[in-house]
Here is the input.
Amino acid sequence: MSKTFSNHGTRGSNRGTSRRWLNLAVGLGVSAILLGSCAVGPNYKRPAVNAPSNFRDATEAATNTVADLPWWQVFQDETLQGLIRTALTNNYDLRIAIARVEQAQAIALQSRLAFFPQLNYQASANRGRNAVNGNALFNHGAITNTFLIEGTASWEIDLWGRLRRLNEAAQAQYLASQEARRDVRISLISQAAQSYFQLLALDQELEIARRTTNSFAESLKIFGERMQGGVVSKLETASAEALLDSTAATVPELERQIALQENQISVLLGQNPGPIIRNHKLLMEMLPPEVPVGLPSALLERRPDIRETEQLLRSANALVGVSVADFFPQLSLTALFGQVSPQLSTLTAGGANAWNIGADFAGPIFRGGQLVSEYRQAKSVREQTMLQYQLTVLNALQEVSNALIARQKYAEERLQQARAVDAYRVAVQVATQRYVSGLASYYEVLQEQQLLFPAENSLTQTELNQLLAVVQLYRSLGGGWQSENVQVPDGK
Here is the structure.
């Protein structure tokens, strides 16, 4: 009776001990959570930026901006809208950016799951001499069997906020990848518009070259007829023929450039190189209405590259906190429950049960300055990222200012060049009439024709530049930043 009572008392004592250990582990976990309410390291604050009250060369300070307009209201050419829709669906750069967002999202989820206990299982069967469970152990040369089934749990208590800082850094990286995708999207829309306008400009230059070639051919025909009548010399026809050939030589060059531009647009659309169908000419009516550019301070909330850099700065700042937390000890709770037996048949018996509850509290004492170096490295990365953020803001202000100046000056330049082209056309017409009437020499005709050709090309280039300035302004303002959340109208 006494022996039986002694065994029963021992089992009761073991159960009481296990409960105490379990209560102790739970108490440590709760206390650690309460103590860990504050994470070590610096909390994030947006760096100060010396933004002006208004953009240089802006007509007025206003809160509304052209960047609030979706792209289909800015670029109203139906052909261009179709190209942009295709690019937003098929472009490989954008698809790569989307895949990077998904990757960053998965990494952020992994970091968040570190807050939860980690559960694992193991099952093994071993047989050996002077070995137990696969490890060498002298047992007088006996051959033993070991069967093991166990489940383990581990949980790192975030005493100093190391896990929270890691989660903050991963979350910021995920948000940065989203902003990078938005930046690729806006860049893609702008690049599609720019390439399309450049293609239309090449079409217009080709039309001018062909028209000028025909004009020189008419002059050569007139000179040829007059030479046959003995009115003019071979010098006049030779000069007219040289101008005809030199102008005609620009036609295949322009056709080559058009084919290359079409191939570039096709790749931008995620398609094989091929022709691009268009039904419009480079007309200034495609310019959007005058809309204020908004306030410089709004760029911080609108431009995706600025928002991306700020998220990277937030991540770098959180990693400084991680490096600070590495100086402190880490507390981990562990648990094991399973069955181990030298015989497979006894695994279901109570004597084969195995369990363990423990707590690990470990920290660094001396690592030769490694932790200090890692801390300094994290601070240097944060400083570098902060400077990159401030530089990105400054470059954004410059790009907006450049686009505003370009839009204003190209409009003034186009007005003067259009007048010059009209004057040259009148001069060519008058010179031709005077030559036919015998009141002017062939030099007057050729001179005016020579001046008209480059003037028309210059006007085309200025019209293109004026359109590109609008594209650049829309891009530099972070245009279409809300269009992802706006339903695209049917056909847009």
